[in-house]
Amino acid sequence: MKRFIALTLVLVLSTATVAQASGSDLIKTLIVDGPAKYHNWKNTTPVLKEMLAASGEFSVDVATFEEGDDSYKPDFDAYDLVVVNDGFGTPSWPSATERAFESYVENGGGVVIYHAANNAWPDWKAYNEMCAIGGWGGRNEKSGPYLYMDQDGKVIRDTSPGVGGGHGKQEAFEIIVREAEHPIMKGLPKSFQHGPDELYSFLRGPAKNVTILATAHSRVGNKGSGHEEPMLMVIHHGKGRIFHTVLGHDVKQIQAGSFVTTFLRGSQWAATGEVTIPVPSDFPNQAYPPKASTEANTEANTDASAAQQDDGFTSLFNGKNFDGWYLKIRSGDAEMAKKVFQVEDGMVHVFGDGFEDGYQLNISSRSETHGLFYANKPYSRYIFKFEYKWGTKKVNNFNQFQYDAGMYYHVSNDKIWPSGLEYQIRYNSVTKENHTGDFWGGGYDWYADKDRKFQFPSEGGKLQPDRGGEHRAKADAPFHALDGEWNQCEVIVMGNKYAIHKLNGEIVNLGIDLDRSEGKVGLQSETAEIFYRNIMIKEFDKDVPIEEFLTEDQLRALKR
Q: DSSP for 319-336?
């Protein structure tokens, strides 16, 4: 039934383009769905169908089950792949249909279990074996072990009593590849960002013939397990291949590049046992929906540094080298700067493995390796985005600033330290306080609470006189410190009109009437190991009113 398919995926900014399949070579796919609670199957099925068809790999039909329809019996054997988009509370299929589906899989049919499909049909033994693990619907230790990985990457099958299924509020999280040589995962980075999305935890089931391809850490602080939970899996059932992804709560989540690429590659593998769909050069940030490319394998298409997304953002860092940037540290030693700033796995790694731990420990603020990597050109009106996470190594350290770095903008000179504005990146591990999102330097109007932390006027913030130096982010700013999680940072700056600092999706600081209107941007090396990635910019030709970024309440009483 299954065939090797050497076809193409034409996604925006894909790094590879090959001949598109003829209709007879397409993977014949059936999406099955039906009434379910809590998940919007009516909205997600059309997007999944479009996603598969637009790749150039699949032809897609849909079979929707209505409760009580005893005639429901799709011809599963006519398809190479069945994508299950059912969920919690989906009524049971007629028994003859269940047996037909079991036969289809046992004889070599391909299946994708998508997100809440692992919530469905807790009493259907064969289906639960196909899922390996699932949640809700009364699942508990009698359904099978709780499957997860420990901190060392060891697979744990926990048979102790407990319910099956859980998740906290939606948030961004890092996915860790566990089987890098599996065809679905080959070519993906070792880790990548996904979300905000639901992060399923405590899933239970037979857990037979399952290989965990990727995991994510379920935070105890967000109703999680504290373990590495399976996000992507493959299961063998009879002769059938099954790809199980727990990602993708709704339309927004399945349109994320991290979902699109893994879903398409997993679907192709389940149907054929092979993967020819390429990993886009700007994964996981490629835009969706896809567009056809008119130029095959041109230099512009393969260069991530020139990647322009549908939302207007351009990647400033190509993940390979410092093209478009230059390095500068206080000592002026160019060879030392290359040791301070290293590119690896699509990231900038500051004070990485080759750098001495504890270098110049407990010195003053005059370290010779304090520095930045600067973009070559100045900017004035833009949104600048990047992600960072802390490593474990301390260098150039003094007590009150153990974990310190930053992003500078509107820089008028590039001395160390430069004249400009800083989006502070800092964690005080003594007081356990966040300083990411703080302003540093420059002059501007600013609103704060009684503790001199940013607060909107609508929330009681008062206009403060310019005092130079540090201007603290809001008191309840969301942040990751030393938990190994990535933080998403954003600076919205409009010439000298205003600058907005965002952290993990929330506005945490804001300055108005800046004392400078343009300059270079750069990211720091300072007192500790840090990683930067997904460095992007969106420029504007003219001022965008601040109203575009704030609510009416937030705007109230701001000085204009």
A: SSS-TTEEEEETT--HHH
> 59 in helix, strand or coil?
strand
- How many Cβ atoms from other residues are within 10 Å of residue 442's Cβ? 20
Is 396 in contact with 360 (CB distance < 8 Å)? yes
- What gap in Å lies between CA 556 and CA 542, rounded to an integer? 24
Query: pLDDT (tens digit, 9 = 90+) per residue, 221-251?
Result: 899 999 999 999 999 999 999 999 999 999 9
Burial of 490 (0-12, 13-18, 19+ CB in 10 A): buried
CB neighbours of 183 closer than 8 A, spacing ≥ 6? 265, 269, 273, 274, 275
First to last CA, the chain: 67
Identify whether the C-beta of residue 410 lies closer than 8 Å to the C-beta of residue 516.
yes
- Residue 120's Cβ-count burial label (10 Å; 0-12, 13-18, 19+) is buried
How many helices (H) and strands (E) the chain has is answered by: 8, 29
Write the CA distances from 251 to 110, 195, 254, 445, integer angstroms: 24, 12, 5, 40
Q: For residues 261-271, b (16+ Cβ closer than 10 Å) or e, as one string?
A: bbbbbbbbbbb
The answer to whether the predicted template modeling score (pTM) of the entire model surpasses 0.85 is: no
